[in-house]
Amino acid sequence: MPESAEDAIDRKSVLVVEAEFLIAMELEIALTDGGFDVLGPAASVDHALELLSSQRPHAAVLGVTLGKEKGDTL
Asked: Which of 4, 6, 15, 48 is placed for a possible disulfide with 42 were both Cys, Cβ 3.0 to 4.6 Å?
């Protein structure tokens, strides 16, 4: 069943920042199934900041470590 324009407007977006591919995909699936629009997933702080330059999500799920980076630098 196609979603109405009203449903699309009411959907909340979530930024996913996670370096582990499988975890990022599981988060994306769970959030999408829960009715959220997913921004990302981003595997680095730079990628997350790039996504944030054009869109503002309602919430974010941040990995604690992103390779050598830390998720708390966002």
From this structure: 48
Of the candidates 12, 60, 65, which has an alpha carbon nearest to the alpha carbon of residue 43?
65
Distance set, CA 16 to CA 3, 4, 38, 39, 56 (Å): 23, 25, 7, 6, 12
Pairs from 7-11 (Cβ < 8 Å, separation ≥ 24): 11/35, 11/36, 11/37
Condensed to tens digits (0 to 9), the pLDDT of residues 1-23 reads 455 555 555 789 999 999 999 99
Residue with tokens 């054009």: 54
**DSSP 8-state assignment for residue 18:** -
Show me where the domains of the chain are located.
5-73
Report phi then psi at 63, rounded to 5.
-70, 150
> What's the predicted TM-score (pTM) here?
0.77
